[in-house]
């Protein structure tokens, strides 16, 4: 099977269900940004040696694929889409709470960085926020998108922020705090 089809050479693509749209449509932006997030997440996973956190991060990747399939759908074949489970959001909240319990209280804004894997967690956070913004725009223009997607991405960006802080804690690195007076 060839990987290239040449069907997109003119700037169009097909949604799951067959509808053809422009590659710069907000729907393509939304699922493309979720795909980008999943790639950055893969890069973060490669840097995390804490087995429990590594497995937790890996469990997010298929959820992002599920979300992407919903975002890439034209709604004509909903029976083929994977179920989206609100329990995934609760799982993120529990993970956030678990990590926050061992972290020092947050008293200022944190600058992204510290080391490579902390920076990658922050990149995941900001790409996730962009995906959320694209989904919000898409929801304004398309009917029928499950509200779970926006809620999950909102919580996931919070999760990545806490993961960055948690990695700094594990690595014994002081967080770089923003000082607006400098």
Written description of the protein model:
The chain is mostly helical and 182 residues long. It has one domain (21-73, 84-171): Up-down Bundle (Hypothetical Protein Ta1238, Chain: A), CATH 1.20.1200. 58% of the residues lie in helices and 3% in strands. It contains five helices and two strands. The protein has helices at residues 26-45, 51-71, 87-100, 116-141, 148-171; strands at 12-14, 20-22. A hairpin with a 5-residue loop joins strand 1 and strand 2 (20-22). The radius of gyration is 18 Å and the shape is elongated.
Strand order, main sheet: write it out: 1-2
- Helical fraction: 55-70%
Give the termini separation. 58 Å
| Stretches with pLDDT under 50, minimum 5 residues | none
The share of residues in extended strands comes to under 5%
**The first-level CATH class name:** Mainly Alpha
Please summarize the sheet with the most strands: 2 strands, antiparallel
Number of helical regions: 5
Quote the CATH topology. Hypothetical Protein Ta1238, Chain: A
What is the total domain count?
A: 1
SSE-based structural type:
mainly alpha
Observed structural traits:
182 residues, mainly alpha, Hypothetical Protein Ta1238, Chain: A, two-stranded antiparallel ribbon, 5 helices, 58% helix, elongated
